[in-house]
């Protein structure tokens, strides 16, 4: 009887404690909500409104409808930047993830000095994008200068320069995620596959990769968004050069990506083009969000439930 009374007292005390916490929960959530509304929701809605306006400053915005979007879609520089960014993202995503997985697989096979290799491969990710761009700019100038050319003179050099830079920076980070995923796979599954007579390649494709899909989902998402949103490295390494003059007199920067194109439209052209730049930014947001959600949905469906 005494024990029952004690248990009742404990349960009532615990319920009495949780009730005040539940009542205070909205109070704790309020500052975060306010900060989110001020730091994200309001600027996003304001930017969405400005994309339908002509303005030089936000205080003199005049609503003009969808003309900014029509100008953005007809802009040859924006269309070229979209194509260049898409090609860059596909190539960089493929190379980064294939090489990162290969390194992760090797470094989980009991090789000596594994921790040192992991540290060395991860270190480039700690360097800022602007600094990294200038470092590789000097490296490419030194290499290509011997052949009388420059990374700024030919589009193919600028493209592969950006690919090399992104691979050098991102492979180590993705490798760490893949290593964590490989190490989380149960050893019993690997042993069971070996007992059943599976070869190493069969074990890799039938056991390791299916159970690694959560890590693949994360790495593909990061590679995809990083590729489309690339700005710092593009600005520092090529600045969009070389230039290509169109028949109508417009100048297309052949290595200019979407983020840099929006930046140059807003700050590099006349102040009347700021509404067009804002419309490009909204289109850019919709594009990246849509592609990312499709990728998440496609890879999430392939994850194995353990």
Give the strand order, joined by hyphens, for the main sheet: 1-2
Strand percentage:
under 5%
How much helix is in the residues? over 70%
Radius of gyration: 26 Å
What ranges have pLDDT less than 50 throughout 5 or more consecutive residues? Answer: 4-12
CA distance, first residue to last residue: 44 Å
Largest sheet: 2 strands, antiparallel
Order of helices and strands: HEEHHHHHHHHHEEHH
Shape: globular
User: Averaging pLDDT over every residue, what do you get?
Assistant: 85
In oligomeric terms, what are we looking at? single chain
For the secondary structure, the number of strands is 4
Number of DSSP helical runs: 12
Q: What class do helices, strands and sheet pairing give?
A: mainly alpha
Would you write up a description of this structure?
Helices cover about 75% and strands about 5% of the residues. With about 300 residues, the protein is mainly alpha-helical. The strands form 2 sheets. A two-stranded antiparallel sheet has the order 1-2. A two-stranded antiparallel sheet has the order 3-4. The protein is globular. The two termini are about 45 Å apart.
Q: Could you give a short description of this structure?
A:
By secondary structure, this protein is mainly α.
Blueprint (SSEs and pairs):
Layout: H1 2-50, E1 53-54, E2 62-63, H2 67-74, H3 76-106, H4 114-122, H5 129-145, H6 155-183, H7 187-195, H8 200-211, H9 213-229, H10 232-237, E3 243-245, E4 251-253, H11 258-268, H12 274-300
Antiparallel strand pairs: 1-2, 3-4
């Amino acid at each position: 009887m005494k024990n029952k009374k004690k248990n009742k007292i404990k349960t009532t005390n615990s319920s009495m404690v949780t009730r005040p916490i539940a009542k205070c929960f909205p109070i704790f959530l309020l500052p975060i909500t306010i900060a989110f509304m001020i730091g994200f929701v309001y600027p996003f809605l304001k930017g969405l409104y400005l994309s339908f306006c002509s303005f030089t400053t936000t205080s003199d915005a005049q609503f003009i409808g969808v003309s900014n979007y029509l100008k953005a879609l007809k802009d040859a520089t924006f269309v070229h930047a979209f194509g260049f960014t898409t090609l860059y993202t596909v190539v960089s995503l493929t190379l980064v993830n294939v090489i990162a997985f290969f390194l992760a697989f090797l470094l989980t096979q009991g090789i000596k000095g594994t921790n040192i290799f992991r540290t060395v491969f991860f270190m480039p990710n700690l360097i800022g994008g602007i600094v990294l761009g200038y470092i590789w700019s000097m490296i490419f100038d030194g290499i290509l200068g011997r052949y009388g050319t420059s990374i700024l003179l030919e589009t193919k050099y600028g493209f592969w320069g950006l690919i090399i830079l992104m691979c050098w920076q991102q492979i180590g980070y993705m490798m760490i995620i893949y290593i964590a995923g490989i190490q989380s796979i149960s050893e019993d599954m690997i042993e069971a596959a070996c007992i059943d007579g599976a070869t190493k390649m069969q074990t890799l494709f039938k056991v390791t990769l299916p159970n690694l899909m959560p890590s693949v989902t994360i790495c593909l998402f990061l590679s995809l968004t990083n590729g489309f949103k690339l700005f710092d490295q593009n600005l520092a390494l090529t600045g969009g050069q070389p230039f290509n003059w169109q028949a109508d007199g417009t100048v297309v920067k052949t290595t200019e990506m979407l983020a840099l194109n929006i930046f140059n439209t807003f700050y590099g052209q006349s102040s009347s083009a700021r509404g067009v730049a804002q419309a490009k930014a909204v289109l850019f947001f919709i594009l990246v969000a849509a592609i990312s959600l499709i990728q998440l949905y496609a890879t999430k469906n392939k994850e194995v439930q353990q």
